[in-house]
Amino acid sequence: MAKGYELLKEKVPEFQTRWKAVTILIGWILLFFMCILFFWWFDSFAWYTPLVSQSIVAVVCTGLAFAHMKNAEKYREKYDKRAYRNFFFHFIVPIFAT
User: What is the pLDDT of residues 65-84, one digit of tens each?
Assistant: First the structure.
């Protein structure tokens, strides 16, 4: 675990500062609670809506993963050394929150 976190700190420099890491964690928690709020709100409409809401989130996560895989090389060219950092914020945080 520590080795993985060290690699994450190297690739995402915001994790090298404690208050920035806490800010990232708070943002992730807020995104997580927004997902929970969406489920709570949407799932109250009918007996079948939990399946629909889970499908929506699964499609969004699959779309994010597919978008990254399809455009990974362009992403690296566009962001160069900051590609891993931007990948983390654009793809990993939303997928982990869901």
Answer: 888 788 788 878 888 888 88
